[in-house]
Amino acid sequence: MAQNRIPIDRISRRSRPTQQTIADITGLAVTTVSKALRQDPKISHSTRALVNKIAQEVGYVPDRAALRLRTGKTNVISLILDPHNEILSFGNSMISGVVKALQETNYHLNIIPHFTQDEIESPVVQIVRNGLADGLIFSRTTALDERVRFLTEKHFPFVTHGRTEFTEQHSFVDYDNDDFAYQSVMRLVQKGCAKVCILLPLSKFTFYQHLRYGFMRAVRETGVDYLFPQTVSLDSQPDELVEWARTLAQSGEIPDGMICPGEISYFAVQNGFTSAGKKQGSDYHMVAKSVSKVLGLSDPGLDCIDEDVHQAGFLMASHLVDQINNPEAGPLQTLQQPIIKFK
């Protein structure tokens, strides 16, 4: 039952706001405030909304140390971000999606950048062994990813951006790179291309297989000639891609159809071909994967296939929260479809 309220402007800003602070302002019992902050469905939606509104206004932040001692939970979701040189704004798009999904929950996001390929599972091990989070999100999966193996053995909640080949299923959100590659080849053949080429990631990554399968499926159906680069990949530095494309164009064996599964690779290849005197639209055609709006602004006539990384972040966070709240439920798996924007 509500007690006498204290005006919010009379609450001292010098001390850290507590649940008692919110109770004093709203006139609600501390137990009711506590349940409302936990989004307890037994508390009315209007009361939960009021409590959360006041909590934001006074700057209330849960005491995570006390929470962990009381419940064993941290209310923290950790996102491990690996470098994605081939995609512009990948990190920002994924983070914004995760944050949006967590807005109506008690979970807070902790971002862990990981820019070395040495001991790739190290951040995961530290988080689990030290109890630094209730769940994990990470990307750049490999076929038999050691992080997935470790987390599965520890029964620790996680969601991957990308699939693996483990027999035991796990939650993931992935982009249908097989269909992306297939649709790209078919578009280039439709434009009259006789030889197509695709830049692939390093073979250790699972999406290397998906891109190659989709590409070769279209090649077999159409009979078009094809080329796989041998000295560069999506993980190559932009200047290396520029030099590779320039050398290829100058060799006289330039493919007239080029597929770039990333924005940086598109700009690099276009730069190399252009510097060799080749003109897009007459000497060659291109299809590129787009995550941001940059490609549409720089080249409005380019055939793009979009990947919604913001939605991927939202889905992964939603899947992870569901997994934490319902540990007995099966894994949640979502395959995002390419968004085709051919001109």
UniProtKB/TrEMBL annotation:
Key words of the record: DNA-binding, Transcription, Transcription regulation
PROSITE patterns: HTH_LACI_2 (PS50932)
Keyword Membrane: no
Alphabetical list of SUPFAM superfamilies matching this protein: lambda repressor-like DNA-binding domains, Periplasmic binding protein-like I
InterPro entries documented for this protein: HTH_LacI (IPR000843), Lambda_DNA-bd_dom_sf (IPR010982), Peripla_BP/Lac1_sug-bd_dom (IPR001761), Peripla_BP_I (IPR028082)
GO MF: DNA-binding transcription factor activity; transcription cis-regulatory region binding
The HTH lacI-type domain, residue ranges: 17-71
PANTHER family found in the cross-reference section: HTH-TYPE TRANSCRIPTIONAL REGULATOR GALS, LACI-RELATED TRANSCRIPTIONAL REPRESSOR
The protein, known as: LacI family transcriptional regulator
